[in-house]
Amino acid sequence: MSQKKIDKQMKQIEDKRAKGRIFKKDSSFLKAEENVFDVPTLKLLYSFANKGIISELGGSISTGKEANVFYATGNEGEVAVKIYRINSSTFKAMDPYILKDPRFTHIRHSRKDIIFAWTQKEYQNLLRINKAGIRAPRPVTFDRNILVMEFMGENGIAYPSLKDVKMDDEDARLFYDQIIENMRRMYVRASLVHADLSEYNILIDIENEEAVIIDVGQAVTLNHPNAREFLTRDIENIKRFFKKYGIDEGTKEIAERIKQKKEEDTIIEPDPEEDAVDAGNNEKTNEKETKEE
Ligand SMILES: Nc1ncnc2c1ncn2[C@@H]1O[C@H](COP(=O)(O)OP(=O)(O)O)[C@@H](O)[C@H]1O
Ligand SMILES: [Mg+2]
């Protein structure tokens, strides 16, 4: 599409938007964020606004390698809006996580399709993780490259990452045990391995002394061929972080703890809700049953 055409479409959308007043910032903000707000993404945000899911889009919380996260408010209260950039240059890095996932073998391997499937996967993983009794954002909705989820924070201020929290050895022990228990619940109850767990993807709700697991787009099911390797890597990351607080448990011992089933565990069966999501919410991804290279 030519720049002129994009500008024209942007203007049309902005005119519509002016009526709905969903964005706090002016259009220069959108231009600066052009990578995120391509025309289809703006249209999608607008459709979320029409549904009331987003009534006001606030500031940027994070600009990552593949996605931007924004704060917003709407009929579900405070939400985080994670927008995967279609133009992301690192999307190739997603391949190993999604292409071998048995849940996603039917997707077409184009850039867009991988990103849409990735967004859907993060939504589904969040559902499963919440069901497993792990504190994580509750997913609100998704479509194409946008995921809307519960905002983990208060009054517009996100909880800090584990890496930024000042704590003594006793606090560290508490969070360490919580995190290992969360990994165990994820493994045993949800049949998932996070696959990118580190002090960056764990937030701390200081008031409730609770670890919050985020960024689960790459989490894989246990039947993924690399699940074991990803689990070991997660364990090593957690070990490395907590070493400075005098915690030094063996990798093997931790892995055993994570795989241990307890009496109170309920195993989450493959979810009819997930199938419903497959069939309904994201028709675009689902249409493409044929595999094309
Ligand atoms: N649900 C949420 N509530 C509050 N902050 C969030 C939420 N999700 C993400 N964030 C913030 O945005 C940052 C990036 O989000 P993340 O999901 O880790 O994306 P990335 O793939 O870019 O690492 C997080 O470190 C966190 O600070
Ligand atoms: Mg992250």
TrEMBL record:
Q: Where is this region: Disordered?
A: 258-293
Q: Which Pfam families match?
A: RIO1
Which transformation does this protein catalyse, written as a reaction?
L-threonyl-[protein] + ATP = O-phospho-L-threonyl-[protein] + ADP + H(+); L-seryl-[protein] + ATP = O-phospho-L-seryl-[protein] + ADP + H(+)
- Asked if Protein biosynthesis is a keyword of the record, the answer is no
Q: Which SMART domains match?
A: RIO (SM00090)
GO MF terms held by the record: ATP binding; metal ion binding; protein serine/threonine kinase activity
Note whether Metal-binding occurs among the keywords.
Answer: yes
Top EC class, one word: transferase
Enzyme Commission number(s): 2.7.11.1
Source organism superkingdom: Archaea
In terms of InterPro entries, this protein maps to: Kinase-like_dom_sf, Prot_kinase_dom, RIO-type_Ser/Thr_kinase, RIO_dom, RIO_kinase, RIO_kinase_CS, Tyr_kinase_AS
Specify the Protein kinase domain's residue ranges.
Answer: 55-293
Annotated PROSITE patterns: PROTEIN_KINASE_DOM (PS50011), PROTEIN_KINASE_TYR (PS00109), RIO1 (PS01245)
| Bias-annotated ranges (Basic and acidic residues) | 284-293
**Chain intervals with Acidic residues compositional bias:** 266-277
- Keywords, sorted A to Z: ATP-binding, Kinase, Magnesium, Metal-binding, Nucleotide-binding, Serine/threonine-protein kinase, Transferase
User: Hey, which family's this protein in?
Assistant: Belongs to the protein kinase superfamily. RIO-type Ser/Thr kinase family.
Q: What is this protein called?
A: non-specific serine/threonine protein kinase
Origin species: Methanimicrococcus blatticola
Classification from the root reads: Archaea, Methanobacteriati, Methanobacteriota, Stenosarchaea group, Methanomicrobia
